[in-house]
Design a protein that fits this description.
Layout lengths: L24 H27 L5 H20 L10 H16 L42 E2 L5 E2 L4 E5 L6 E3 L6 E4 L10 E6 L12 E2 L5 E2 L14 E3 L2 E3 L1
Antiparallel strand pairs: 1-2, 3-4, 3-6, 5-6, 7-8, 9-10
Helix pairs in contact: 1-2, 1-3
Length: about 240
């Protein structure tokens, strides 16, 4: 029987301009790549302005190539929360930013590539899936869902596996609209966590579920028999699985 903790860290927004982000390697990599591309192209253009000549097309092309490679690596992480647009759309925004900063039309050397189409039912790199489910994965990475970015995610399967790898745990991103609850230490070295529907207010949950302080919809209970499947176990006043 898997037991989970509702002691999940609460993300607190401190001022409109100081909101804490969800942890995401994908978002971090793509955001950093976008910033580096702006700096790279601005540097090339700055040198051209100083010398009075045209921007170096070869150097601009290198800026494009570095961004494309980094963005692809970020997308492959499969845990995007903010950077949900395609690499091409992010690149277009970056180019527009550079053009605005330079107050002139900036030459671009964007390479035309065949972009994988998420949602066409065909798994195309860097996609890990394309449909409702994720293809079988090696233990213990066994997500059962596929998110909007065509990356594998946990839906009904475990989202956290304790006692794995160098870090001592394995975290698997939940599918859209879900949040992972990790098991407390007292539940053993091999305990796993599950995904629950996320919520911000009571209206986000349907009875008998209520929006818990952990930010997920949970069933209140007094004993195990109060729980409605898929939750079957009453722990600290809420039903877990």
């Amino acid at each position: 029987m898997t037991r989970l903790s509702i002691g999940v860290a609460v993300v607190v927004a401190v001022g409109a301009a100081n909101v804490a982000f969800a942890q995401s390697n994908c978002d971090s990599t793509i955001t950093r790549a976008a910033g580096k591309k702006v700096a790279c192209k601005a540097g090339v253009i700055s040198k051209a302005q100083k010398s009075g000549g045209p921007p170096d097309a070869a150097r601009l092309a290198k800026c494009e190539a570095k961004f494309a490679n980094a963005c692809g690596n970020g997308r492959a992480a499969g845990d995007c929360v903010v950077q949900l647009g395609s690499c091409a759309s992010v690149e277009a925004t970056v180019d527009a930013c550079v053009a605005t900063l330079m107050a002139s039309t900036v030459p671009t050397t964007t390479t035309t590539t065949i972009v994988p189409v998420c949602g066409n039912g065909v798994v195309e790199p860097p996609e890990a899936c394309d449909g409702a489910t994720c293809p079988p994965q090696p233990y213990p990475f066994y997500p059962d869902g596929c998110n909007d970015a065509c990356q594998c995610c946990a839906r009904d399967s475990a989202c956290y596996v304790r006692g794995f790898g160098v870090q001592g745990f394995l975290r698997i991103p939940c599918c859209s609209g879900l949040r992972c609850l990790e098991p407390p230490m007292e539940f053993g070295p091999n305990a796993t966590g599950a995904c629950y529907r996320s919520c911000a207010q009571p209206a986000d949950c349907s009875p008998p579920y209520v929006c818990s302080p952990a930010g997920v919809c949970l069933q209140p209970c007094v004993q195990d028999s109060d729980c409605v499947p898929p939750e079957f176990f009453c722990y600290q006043g809420v039903c877990l699985r």
